[in-house]
Design a protein that fits this description.
Helix content is 78%, strand content 0%. By secondary structure, the chain is mainly α. It is elongated and about 60 Å long.
């Protein structure tokens, strides 16, 4: 079975990694297309529609994660999966390190709505990985398997906050774009 914070570290983060990959791909394609349009003579240099569309796609991916996580929390609390190996700490630790590096790389270009929304997605990833690391450690230490799904429940409000904050900034960018 798939769980957000489960003992099978290789499979547990698959959909999360897939949505991240898609978010980065959409963001990259929008950035390349935007740079191309600037190069061939676009006159205005901010509020690009392709970046707003990419931000909306990434917000949609983030919003699709919320019901999945809630489902995982509920099913995990009903039937917690046993965490039985210290190796499972490597998956959230590696994800945390990667997310911290990506956030550091993206922080320099936050005025771009596309990059800002991807950074918001990465911040949600940092929260998820941090909670996964701590709760998996506590689960291994105490043998209380319900801690992992309870930890996932802590992540949901953080993801919802990031989603709404980035939705507001994307809406503002769309309004500004419509005025250009």
């Amino acid at each position: 079975r798939f769980r957000l914070l489960a003992s099978d570290g290789g499979f547990a983060d698959f959909t999360h990694a897939a949505s991240d990959s898609l978010a980065y791909l959409v963001g990259f394609v929008a950035a390349v297309f935007s740079a191309y349009l600037d190069r061939v003579g676009r006159t205005h240099k901010e509020f690009h529609l392709e970046e707003i569309v990419a931000a909306l796609v990434n917000l949609t991916l983030l919003s699709l994660a919320i019901p999945l996580i809630i489902w995982q929390v509920v099913s995990g609390l009903r039937d917690p999966e046993t965490v039985d190996s210290w190796w499972v700490l490597s998956a959230p630790a590696a994800a945390l390190v990667m997310s911290l590096i990506i956030s550091w790389l993206l922080k320099s270009n936050q005025e771009n709505i596309n990059v800002s929304v991807i950074l918001g997605h990465v911040i949600a990833d940092i929260a998820t990985s941090s909670v996964a690391l701590v709760m998996t450690f506590l689960t291994l230490l105490t043998a209380k398997d319900w801690l992992n799904p309870a930890g996932a429940a802590l992540v949901v409000p953080a993801i919802i906050y990031v989603l709404f904050a980035k939705a507001v900034s994307t809406r503002e960018a769309l309004i500004n774009w419509s005025k250009t």
